[in-house]
## 1
Amino acid sequence: MKQYTDLNTSPRLLLGPGPSTVHPRVLRAMAHPLVGHLDPQFIALMNEVQEMLRVVFQTENQLTVPVSGTGSAAMEASLCNFVEPGDSVVIGVCGYFGERLCDIAGRYGAEVRRLDRPVGEVFEVGEFEAELERKPAKLVALVHAETSTGVLQPMEGLADVVHRYGGLLVMDCVTSLGGVPVKVDEWDVDIAYSCSQKCLGAPSGLGPITVGPRAVEVLNARQAPVTNWYLDLSLLSKYWGSERTYHHTAPISMNYALREALRMVLEEGLEARFARHRANAELLWEGLQDLGLELFVPVERRLVPLTTVKVPEGIDEAAVRSELLQTYNIEIAGGLGATKGKVWRIGLMGYSSQPQNVLALLGALERLIS
Amino acid sequence: MKQYTDLNTSPRLLLGPGPSTVHPRVLRAMAHPLVGHLDPQFIALMNEVQEMLRVVFQTENQLTVPVSGTGSAAMEASLCNFVEPGDSVVIGVCGYFGERLCDIAGRYGAEVRRLDRPVGEVFEVGEFEAELERKPAKLVALVHAETSTGVLQPMEGLADVVHRYGGLLVMDCVTSLGGVPVKVDEWDVDIAYSCSQKCLGAPSGLGPITVGPRAVEVLNARQAPVTNWYLDLSLLSKYWGSERTYHHTAPISMNYALREALRMVLEEGLEARFARHRANAELLWEGLQDLGLELFVPVERRLVPLTTVKVPEGIDEAAVRSELLQTYNIEIAGGLGATKGKVWRIGLMGYSSQPQNVLALLGALERLIS
C-alpha cells in the first residue's frame, strides 16, 4: 500500500487573496483538545464568538453567527434564506463575486436584475435608485470589497434608497471585514457576510454572517421552508440562540481558531487594525510603483487588504508567481474572471499585513521582473 | 470592553455520538502552518485525502471528496444533487436521521415516500422491493448506522433491488465509516456520505462523500442546475478533479487534520480498526449489563461505534450526564428524537475507542447510578 509521509508543506508567506498567514496563537488554539458541541463550555464559547463577531461587524444584530462552511456558504446563506421563487433581486456586478451572487440568486428562483459596471469601477447610489424606481426589488445585493478586482465600493447612503423601496440590502464583506471599516449598523445593512481566512486571520472554514431585524422579519414571514437545509437560518438561529436545538455538529476546532483570531482583533482594536492594514498597503503601493509597476485601481477606490497590479507587457505572469512560490515561498495570486492574466492580486490581510512581508515581496519581485 | 481569557476548556473524554476525542497527532497536523488552497502542495494533499477516503469507503469511485461542511452538509449534497422537483424518493425511516433525509429531500421538491420501522428495528430488503414494485423511485435512501438509536442496518442485497427498478441507492454512513465495515463497491451503493468527527477521528467540519458512476450519469443528465450552489457536485468535481477550477476556498487546516486522521486509519488497517472498535464495544456492553443496565438494541443489530442503553426507572438521565461531565470529565449523550429521555448514547469511536476509556466510564457510572 502507498505510504503517506508526515505533513511537510513549505512555510509559505501567504500574500494572496486568502487564506492569509495564520498567527501561531490561532494555530495553537485550534490544536486545543476538543469538547463536545453541546458541552456547556462550548456553548459559552459560541456566545463569545457571537459577541466578538458583533464587534467586528459593528452591529447589535442578535442573529450574528459563523456559518459552518466557508465564505461562499455564507454568501449562499445570505441569499437562499430571503429569496423565494419569483422574487425580484437587484445585483450590482463589477467583478467575479458579483457574478456569483447572480448565479446563486438565480438558482433559488429569483428574477435577477443585474446592474453592470466595468471591472475596476464602483456604483453610485443613484444607479440603484433609478433601477428601484423602475421596479422595486426584495433584495439588493452587492460586493463591498471585490476580491477579483481590488475595488472598494462605498456603502454610504445606499441602504436609505433600498429601504425606501421596501427592499433588503445584502453586503458581501468577505475581503473587507477586519481590514477596513465595515459598519453594518451605521450603514443600515440588513444582511452582511464574510469569511474567516482573510482579514480576521483564522483558517478557512467558517463564514460569519449577520442578519438585522428587517431581514429576520422577512425570514419569519417566508411561505415555504428554505430549500437549503444546511444553511437554513431559522434552524441555525435556534442552534446558536438560547434554545440550542441540535442542527448539525459545529466545527469545534474551527470555532476555537475563530475565537482566538477575534480575540486578537479586539486586543489590537479595530481602528489600530485598520490603520495597520492601510500603512502596509501604502508601503506596498509605493514600492510597486517604484518598481515601475502600474496599479490597476485608482487610489480613491482602491481596496486596502487586496491590491491589484497590472502585469507588465512581455512578462509571463504565471511564471513569476511560480518563481515567487518556489524560490521565495511567497504566494500571490493571478487575476480572476475578467482580470485573469491581466493583474496580480496581492493580499495584505490579518497577520500577513506586516511591513517585513511587504519588503520581502518587493525584493523578490524586483529580482524576478527586472 | 469585556475581556476574553485564554481558551481553557476542560480535558473531556468524548464518549458521546461525536466529536470523538482527537488524537494528538491529528491536532498537531491541524496546527501546521497553512499553505494556499491552490498551492501545488495543497493540491497534492487533496489527491492524498481523496485516495485515502477511497480506501476507507472501500471504493474506486473517482468522485470521492470531503465536502467543506459537516456530515449534515454531506447528507444534503447526497440528495440535492440528484433530486429534481417531482422526483420520487423512497426513504427508510427508523430514527432521527431518516427523518432528516425526508425533510431535506422534500425541500428540493421530491415526492417523499417514507417506509417506517419502529425505532430500534431494521429494514428487510423485501420491504423496499415491495415499495419499488408498486412504483419505481429515482432514489432510495437509508441510514446504515442510525446515531439516534444505535442500530446497524444490513446493506447486503439492497442495491440489486434498487437498481433493478432503475433507482440510485443513497447510504448514510456517518456513524459507521471507519468503525465497522462500509463496503461501497461490494454493496454497490451509488452515493454514500459520512463525517470527519466520529470513527475517522478528525474534528468536526468535513463531510466525506463518494459518488459512483450511475449517480454521476444522473448528475450529468440534470435538466436544471443544482439549486444548492455550495454543494453542487458538478462544480465540486471540477475543483477536486484535474481541472482545479476555483469554487470555494477549501478549509486548509481541516484537510490537514483529515489527512492525518486517514493516515492513522490506514496505518492501523481497516480490519484491525474494526476489531478494536468491536472489542471495546463488547467490553462496554458486558460492563453495562454487569451494572444491571439493559441495552436498547438486541446484539444482532446492535451498532458497534455507538451503544444505546436504557435509562433505569427512577434515574434522572440528564443529572447523570451532567455529573459525568462535571465530576469525571466524561461526555456521553442522551437520546435524540424518539429515544429522548429513554436512553443514553455512548460512543466508542476512533481514538475514543480504548479499553481504559470504557473502564473509566463504567467506574463512574457505577458510582452515579447505584
## 2
Amino acid sequence: MTHSEITQAILKKQSFLCIGLDVDLEKIPPHLLAEEDPIFAFNKAIIDATHHLAVAYKPNTAFYESYGLKGWRSLERTIEYLNDKHPEIFTIADAKRGDIGNTSSRYAKAFFEHMGFDSVTVAPYMGRDSVEPFLAFENKHTILLALTSNGGAFDFQTKQVEDQALFQSVIKTAMTYDHSDRLMFVVGATKDEYLAQVRALVPHAFLLVPGVGAQGGDLAAVCRHGMNESVGLLVNSSRAIIYASQGHDFAQAAANAAQQMQQQMHQILTERGSR
Amino acid sequence: MTHSEITQAILKKQSFLCIGLDVDLEKIPPHLLAEEDPIFAFNKAIIDATHHLAVAYKPNTAFYESYGLKGWRSLERTIEYLNDKHPEIFTIADAKRGDIGNTSSRYAKAFFEHMGFDSVTVAPYMGRDSVEPFLAFENKHTILLALTSNGGAFDFQTKQVEDQALFQSVIKTAMTYDHSDRLMFVVGATKDEYLAQVRALVPHAFLLVPGVGAQGGDLAAVCRHGMNESVGLLVNSSRAIIYASQGHDFAQAAANAAQQMQQQMHQILTERGSR
C-alpha cells in the first residue's frame, strides 16, 4: 500500500483512526470463550463493526504470543481476514522487532511475506543494519519507534545526544538509511509538545500516534502539532474502543466508540479543509 | 535457575558456551527436510550431540517466526525438549522484545510462563516500564541489549549521552530498576575494547557475548576483558557450530566445533584456576 493510497482512504472515510487489536481473553466478552477461536471471533466482530470507521488495524503481537501456538494462529487468521475482506485497510504488526541483519530479514519475512502485513513496528537501538532489512521490502512500511507513549520513554529517548534528543537523532539517522521513504515513526500522543519537533524533522512521513484514549492523549493537540498537508497521521486507540463493553453488545459498543473518534477526526479534517 | 547454578554448570562442564539455535531450512542438512518437523529434528540432534559441551542454548525467535505457525510449534517443541531432557541447561529466548508495561508483561508471560524459558533478551529503548515486567519474574533473567555485535551498534549505542556512551547509560539506568539483580547484558564480542567498561559497571552480572565465530570475535580477548571472579560470561556461537556440516554427519560436526570451543574455554578456566 502506498502513502497516497493511505491518504485517499483517510479522506474517503474522514478518519485516520487505527484500532489496536490487543486481545486479552480476560477482557473480551465471556460468551466468546465458548467459540473455537475466541480471539479471532472477537477480532472478526470488532473488524466487521468498525472497518468503515478506521483506516488501519494494529494487532500487538505480544497479546497473541502469550497464548502460544493458539494465539499465533489467531493472529494469522486475523491478518488473513483483513487482507481477504478489507484489502483497503492498512495493517500494522505491532511487534517492535529489530536484530542483526540476517535476523531482521527473518522478522521482515515473517511479517511482510508470511503473514502479509503492510507494516511492522521496529525498535531502533541496533541501528542501520537492524532496520534496513525491513526497508528493503517494496510497498511495505517500517514504523520506527521514535518517542513512545510510556513513562520509560524519558529514560533514554529524550536524553541529549550531542545537541539533540535521542529520538531526534534516531529520526535523523534513520532518514539516511536506504529506502527511508518507507519509514514511518511512532510518536506518543502523551507528549504532544514533541510532535511538532518530529514533524519538523520529517515533514512527509506518516506518524503513528499511540496513547490517545486509555493512555490520556488529546486528539486535537496531536493534530495541531503532528498533521502535515496530506494528514500524515494514524492515531491509534486500543482499549477505549475494543473493550467499550464486555456484554453481548461489545461490537456495537466498539463501533460507537470508534464513531466518536471518527467524528472528531471528521471535524478536524473539515476545519482544515481536507474533505 | 540461579546465578550460582549457572556458575556451577560452567565449572562442571568447563564451558561457558551458549549455542545459538538459529535454524534456517536452507542451511540444515537436506535429508532432514523429509522429517515431519525438520526444525525440531535438527535442534534435537544438535542438542543431543552437544549438551555436555554447552551450558546454554539460545533459539533466536526470528528464525522460527519466519516459518509461521509451523516454526512457532518447532520452537515450543525445542524448549519443551530442553526443559524435559536437560533441565540443567540455561535457556535463552533471543527475542529482543520490549513494549509498554502491560504489553511487556505479555511477552514475559509468553516466554517465561507459557514456554518456560529461563531468560529472554530485551531491547532497552522504551525504558523502565518496558523492562521491569520481565524483571518481576522470580528465578528468571532479563538479558538487556547493551552493546550489540553488529555495525549498526555505532548508530546510537556508542553515542555520547551526557558524559558517557548510551550503552553505559543503559546499563547504569537499568541497574536502578526493580529486581536489577535479575539482569544480564548483551555485549558483542566484536567490540572487546568495550567489554572492560561494561564489566567495570556491572562486576557481578552475567554478560551474554554474541559475535564469537562467524561474526569474528576473539574468545581470549573476550575473557581477558569480560570475565569476573565467578566467570560471569556466556559466549554464544551459532552458525560456526550448527552449520559445521550440511551432511549426514552434521550433529557430529557440530559436536566437534563445540568441543573446540569448550577446549579453549577449559584452557582459559584452567589458566585462571577455575576448575
